[in-house]
Amino acid sequence: MTETKPYLCPKQSRMNFSDLGLSAPLLSAIEKAKYESPYPIQVEAIPALLQGKDVLGIAPTGSGKTASYILPILQLFQKKEPAINRIIPVLILVPTRELAVQVAEVANNFSRFLGRKVKTLAVFGGVSINPQMMSIYGTEIMIATPGRLLDLLSKNSMRLSEVEILVVDEADKVLSMGFKEEVDQILAELPKKRQNILFSATMEESVEVLINKLLHNPVKIEIEQDEIAPELITQSAYFVSNEKKGPLLRHLISTGDWKQVLVFTSSIRTADNLVVKLKKNGIEAVAFHGDKSQGARTEALSGFKAGRIRVLVATDLAARGIDIKFLPIVINFELPRSPKDYIHRIGRTGRAGSEGEAISLICEEDLHHFKVIQKKMGRRVEMINAEKLEF
Question: Does the reported pTM lie above 0.70?
Answer without folding.
Answer: no
